[in-house]
Write a structure and sequence with these properties.
alpha+beta, 5 helices
């Protein structure tokens, strides 16, 4: 039960956490040689090192890497997530979002105001390229926004809206690195960094046994690994 509760809480904070992880896009023009499209790897993606999280990601989620130097990460929660949230032994309304917002949002995003979420989400997209995918006319969304703005907590009858996800777009720089074992690999540096330093987020690239490109994003404070595998290309006849 504890593991299941951790997974549910992780799903609730993953969207907000991703907004704070991808801070600023880089500006280097070194890029990949072609466009790549990736889907979530169902086996290797974990949150808090618990496997199986991709089951909660809907079709359309994935990672796009463009040869023009832009990337797009889309996370859309699947309806199966609702099954977990029906567990009456876990009171979602007791989770105080104010703590998360005070600890992460205020220092990093000074313009973020939980009392005006629509304006804050608009500023998030404009300033950082991070976008919450929501239908503001959906009843579940209206309840969530009203409850968080007024109380700092989720409503007691919380359900994940039918339209609910996250999209992040930015520029990237490719670097060729060498592992401790001496293996060479490529990594995408997404945010600004000094010449002798590293960004907070690095996307590593590799290949699997089938020759498909793979990508991995590791976020340590959530013990979260987002793993992707290249989509098969359909050749035109």
């Amino acid at each position: 039960m504890r593991t299941k509760n951790l997974m549910i809480m992780a799903l609730l904070i993953i969207i907000v956490a991703l907004c704070f992880c991808f801070i600023l896009p880089g500006c280097d023009t070194m890029t990949l040689d072609k466009d790549y499209s990736f889907s979530f790897d169902a086996i290797k993606t974990t949150i808090w090192d618990v496997p199986g999280v991709p089951l909660f990601f809907a079709k359309g989620s994935g990672l796009e890497l463009k040869k023009d130097g832009n990337l797009s990460l889309t996370v859309i929660l699947a309806p199966t997530t609702l099954t977990l949230l029906e567990d009456k032994k876990f009171d979602l309304s007791a989770f105080d979002l104010d703590i998360l917002m005070t600890r992460y949002a205020e220092p990093i995003l000074p313009w973020f105001d939980r009392h005006d979420l629509k304006a804050s989400f608009a500023a998030l997209k404009q300033n950082l390229g991070a976008e919450l995918i929501l239908d503001y006319e959906e009843e579940a969304t209206k309840k969530i926004i009203a409850s968080v703005e007024n109380t700092g907590k989720l409503n007691s009858d919380f359900t994940i809206p039918k339209t609910f996800g996250f999209r992040y777009t930015a520029e990237y720089k490719v670097k060729k690195l060498t592992s401790a074992e001496g293996k060479e690999y490529f990594a995408l540096y997404v945010d600004k960094f000094s010449e002798d330093g590293e960004p907070f987020i690095i996307i590593t690239l590799d290949e699997n046994e089938n020759g498909q490109k793979t990508a991995k994003i590791r976020i340590e404070f959530l013990k979260m690994t987002l793993s992707f595998v290249e989509n098969e290309t359909v050749e035109e006849k």
